[in-house]
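Need residues for this backbone.
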């Protein structure tokens, strides 16, 4: 399970994800701008983080499957 978080400040925003144990897996920091621009950055930030982690998970699954197949 991954949990997303946003820290919204007056000068910067921090977006990130953590696992169920509280370990921060990825994060990004960017300056606060107009509400529209800032929210677009928040959405894009989470899209990139999710894509990255989905790709990582697919790679791990593929390698585990290859390892299991070699053991049979």
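Answer:
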């Amino acid at each position: 399970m991954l949990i997303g978080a946003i820290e919204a400040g007056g000068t910067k925003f921090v977006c990130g994800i953590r696992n169920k144990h509280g370990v921060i897996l990825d994060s990004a920091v960017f300056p606060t701008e107009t509400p529209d621009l800032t929210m677009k950055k928040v959405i894009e930030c989470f899209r990139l983080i999710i894509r990255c982690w989905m790709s990582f998970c697919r790679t791990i699954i593929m390698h585990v499957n290859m390892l299991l197949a070699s053991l049979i």
